[in-house]
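ok so i was messing around last nite and threw this chain in just to see what happens. nothing serious, just curious
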Amino acid sequence: MTTTPQAVRRASPRTRRAATPPDPARPLLPDSAPVRLLDESGTLLAARTDYPEPPLEALHEMYRRMVLGRRFDTQATALTKQGRLAVYPSSRGQEACQVGAVLAVRDTDWVFPTYRESMALVARGIDPVEVLTLLRGDWHCGYDPTAVHTAPQCTPLATQCVHAAGLAYGEAYQGRDTVALAFIGDGATSEGDFHEGINFAAVFKAPVVYFVQNNKYAISVPLSRQTAAPSLAYKGVGYGVPSEQVDGNDPVAVLAVLTRAVAHARAGKGPYLVEAHTYRMEPHTNADDASRYRDGAEVDAWRDRDPVARLETYLRARGVLDDAKIAAIAAEAEASAAELRTRMNDQPTVDPLSLFEHVYAEPTPQLVEQREQVRAELAAADEEGGH
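result:
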């Protein structure tokens, strides 16, 4: 079975290209510099045999989802300012990572997102309103994780690393070729759960791809205050995990590197660690003032490395995109944003007692007691209101 982006796999099965796992004789160390296939202007660099260029139809679909994802992200930020969302962690600037990751895995693979992966979940095909339900604050998780093979967005740092290792090990134990993809922020690599998860996965050869989006800041803490390692990709080496670093604003390289990492895991060779060097253009969340810890010149420098513009330039040069196609994709993105605005204007009906659902398979005595206490308080409030 080959590993290709899910949308392309459905649309044109005869154009699939096999992704071979890395050579097992290759050292665990990542490349000394991040893998790049496009330069910052969008020009193709010298070809690499270890990371062949993905099919053009896959890159076209990646561009489309990146444009839709950026417009979704902008709209979600606006909804936060309007009070429709309690909080929103933007992933603007990280479109290549967000979209490339979910295109590198199958629909049947499992994704373990952090709180910043809203764009990735939309690119995976999950209803945008269901994605934003958590951030609106009216449900634990707006989508059914088992139906979409996507874990709930994880707010505690790095706990998803352990979850991904456990699920991947369980799937492999049952003879399935499922791969788990765990999104990680650079700050999460300083947490114990990250090290415990990757160590377990390495020892038991669990098919996990740990994808670190190094956007240079753990809220306000710069990378230089988090690690003395040459790059975060080197953190896999001590656990016997092959690792790679990639230019996270190069969409072609991101898809190529992650496709190969997924093939490695699916081939039964254990976990793989990929670090993407990228940048968070917006504040950590709407509650953050990024100007307190980084200056405008730094942001402007990264703005020139825009992943969407980079891929657009390349696909224009290859004859895949033109003005008409770009305008059609932009119109699709605007229509999606308009639909999201309309649907988010509907106030959800929230039952306070639903807080106690899905906490445990069997409610504990303490949980039952708390639920009944809330039920009594609600009944008393209704009675008082009736008078």
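not much to say yet. Residues 1-17 have pLDDT under 50 and may be disordered.
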